[in-house]
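Please predict the structure of the following assembly.
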Amino acid sequence: MRKINKENLINQLKEKGLKITPQRVAIIDALVENRHAHPGATLIYNEARKKASRVSLSTVYATLKEFSESGLIKQLEFDRMENRYDGDLSEHINLICKRCGTIIDYHIPATLEPKDIARKAGFVVTDTRMEFHGYCRDCLKRPD
Amino acid sequence: MRKINKENLINQLKEKGLKITPQRVAIIDALVENRHAHPGATLIYNEARKKASRVSLSTVYATLKEFSESGLIKQLEFDRMENRYDGDLSEHINLICKRCGTIIDYHIPATLEPKDIARKAGFVVTDTRMEFHGYCRDCLKRPD
DNA sequence: GACGCAAACTGGAATGGTTCCGAAATGAGA
DNA sequence: TCTCATTTCGGAACCATTCCAGTTTGCGTC
C-alpha cells in the first residue's frame, strides 16, 4: 500500500517530528482527494482554502517541498507547466499528455516493454524520460 | 550512432527546411563540444558568443526549443535548475546529482536492474523518474 | 491549564529562467 | 539580383517559486 491516504500521512508527520497544523491537514486533504489528478500547487492552494482554514500560497509551496523532501509524496517537475505532485510512490511510469497535461499512472508488469504498454494504452509516446536522482560519487566524498 | 555531431545536425536542419544561420551553427558547435556536460541555455549562450558571431539569448532559447521539438536533441526539464540539453537520443538513464547538478549518462544493459547499475556506479539514488511524454487517447481524437 | 520556544505561517517583494513582441536583418529559392 | 518567409534582436513581460522579517502557534513541560 503505497498510495497516500490521510491518516497515513499524518502519522508520518508525527514520526518525523513535524507539527500537525490545520494548514497541513488542509493540504493533505487536497492531495488525497485529487490524487488521480496529480495536482499542482495552485490547485492544492485553491482546494485547501475551501477547507475553511487560512492558508497562504507560500505555505503550500513550503509544505509540498517539505513533503517531497521527506519522501511522503513525489514531485514531478516540468518546463512550462507548474510542478505536479504524485502520491503514488511505487515504481510506475507517468504518461504525460503534451497537449492537455493529463498525467496517467501506468504500473509496469515487470516483464513487458514499457513502450508496448504505452502503445496498448492508446497513448502515443513522443519522448521518454528516465532519470534517477541522487548523489554522485564525488559529492558523496565531499563534506557537506 | 545517435550521439550528435556537427554535420549530422546541419544535414537534419536542411532536411527539415530550416535555414543554416551563423547563430545556429555556433549553437550546434556549443552543443557538440559540451555534449558530455548536458549544457543549459546559459552555457550554450556563452560558448556561442565566443565563436565570434553575434547571438542573443532569445535566439538561443528559440533554437534549442526548435531543435528539441524537431527531435534533434532532448530537453531535460528541472525544477530549480535551468533546463539542460542532451544530444544522446538513445535510451539511457540520466543520473542526476542533487547537490552539484552533474548529469551522468548510463546506458542500460537490457538484463540488469537499473537501480543495481546505479548502485554499482557509486551513485546513491534517492528518487527515480520514469516518464513517457506524448499524446493521450482523448487528445488524439480531438481535432487540433 | 499556563508557559516557552522552536517550528510554522504570512504576504508581499524579489528572483530567475523562459517567452513574447514588434521591428530589423537575412538565407536561399526564383 | 529580388523577394519574402524565416530568423534574429533586445528589452519587456511572465509566472512559478523562493525569500524574508515579523507574527502566530503546536506541543512538550511544569
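Chain B has a mean pLDDT of 87. The first helix of chain B runs from residue 6 to 15.
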